[in-house]
Amino acid sequence: MSFYSFLRSLLFLLDPEIAHRITINYLKMVRSKKPESYNVLRSNVFGLNFPNPVGIAAGFDKNAEVAENLINLGFGFSEVGTVTPSPQPGNPKPRIFRLKDDEAIINRLGFNNDGFDQVKTRLGKTNDSIVGVNIGANKDSKDFSEDYIKGIKFFSTLASYITINISSPNTPGLRKLEVLENLDVLLDKINNLHKEDLLIKIPILLKISPDLESDNLKYLCDKVLSSEIDGLIISNTTVARNSITSNLAQEGGLSGRPLFKSSTLQLRKVYKYTNGEIPLVGVGGIDSAEKAYEKIKNGASLVQLYTGLVYNGPKLIKNINKDLSILIEKDGYNNISEAIGVEVN
Ligand SMILES: Cc1cc2nc3c(=O)[nH]c(=O)nc-3n(C[C@H](O)[C@H](O)[C@H](O)COP(=O)(O)O)c2cc1C
User: How many domains does the chain have?
Assistant: First the structure.
C-alpha cells in the first residue's frame, strides 16, 4: 500500500469538506521544492509561458489560499475560484459526495467563497507563477453578466488570466449564459470592455459545459471566434448520469473518471468548430499521462484536473509530467505544441 492510499483511507473516513479543509491546511504548511521540469512540456499559450501543461482546476483552491503551494507540487499553473463579487455560503450541506467505485465526485457546492475582496488580498501575495482567477456570479445577483464584468475589472491587474465560469450546474440559471442572446449580451459587454479600456490586455477564457448540445456549441464557437475571448476551458462537471454505479439520484455536477469520455468529445468538437484557431484547455477525468495526452491530441493546449488528485494524491502530478514527456518524445515530437489536435480530422 502506498503512503497516499493509506492517507486516503483515513481522509475518506471524514466528510469530504472536512477532508478538503485538512488538505488545504496541510498544503499551507509543507514546503515542497519545485520538481523536475521538461523542455518538451514548456509552451507559450495566450502569451503566457507555461512550465508544463498540467493545471489545478477551479474549485480546489476556491479562495486562493494555496495557489503557489500547488505550483510547488508540480502543477504548471493554478486556477483559483470560483469567486463571486460578494462572499456567499453556497448550498446547504451535505453537498459533496464521493463515488469511490467510479473514482468520481458529485458536488453541488453552489459557489461557496470568500468574495472578490478577500481573494484579491491573498492573490497579492503570490509570486510570478501563472495563477488564473475563475469568476462567477452571485446567486442573488440581479444581472449575472454584470458580475463578470466587475470581476474582469477587479482582477485584471493581479491575475495571469481570468476564467468566465458560465457552466456551473449549481447556480440556477447560470448555464443560460452559454446560449444564444444571453451569450451575445455577455460577449458584447466583454468586447466593449476591451474597446473602452485598452489597459485590459489580460487573457480571458470561457469555461463551458460538457452538456451543451451541438447546435448551441457551434453557435458559441462562432461567437467566440469573433470576440475578445482568448481561450476556452472544456469542461465543467456534467449533470448527465451515464456510466456511474451509485448516487444516480444525487443532484449536482459529476466529475472524475466517468466524465472523461464526454468532456473529451466536447473538446474535440470545439477544436473542429474553431478550426484550432483558439487555445483550448482540456478538463474532465484526467488521472494519468495517457489521458492528459488524449486531451492534447484532441485539441487541448493545456489540461487541468481536480478529482484525479483526490483519488491518486499529489504524486500524480509529477508522474503525469514525467510520463507525458516520454509519450510526446516517443511519438517523435520536439514539443507538446506539435501534438495539439493531431487526432482531430
Ligand atoms: C468539489 C468540486 C468543486 C468544484 N468547484 C468548481 C468551481 O468553483 N468552479 C469551476 O469552474 N469548476 C469547479 N469544479 C469543476 C472542476 O474545475 C472541473 O472542471 C471538473 O471537476 C472536471 O475535472 P475533473 O474530472 O478532473 O475533476 C469543481 C469540481 C469539484 C469536484
Answer: 1
Number of H helices, E strands in the chain: 11, 13
- Whole-structure pTM value: 0.96
Cell of 288: 494519468
Residue 245 has pLDDT above 90, yes or no: no
- Contact predicate 285/237, CB 8 Å: no
CATH number of the domain within which 297 lies: 3.20.20.70
Query: Rounded to the nearest whole angstrom, what is the distance from the C-alpha of residue 136 to the centroid of ligand 1?
Result: 13
Q: Is residue 37 part of a domain?
A: yes
Q: Which residue has the higher pLDDT, 163 or 127?
A: 163
> Using CA atoms, how far apart are residues 137 and 149, in angstroms rounded to an integer?
10
Residue identifier of the C-alpha nearest atom 7 of ligand 1: 59
The rounded Å distance from CA 232 to ligand 1 centre is: 15
Question: Does residue 262 carry a pLDDT above 60?
Answer: yes
What's the confidence (pLDDT) of residue 1? 67
168 among known catalytic residues: yes
User: By alpha-carbon position, which residue is closest to atom 26 of ligand 1?
Assistant: 305
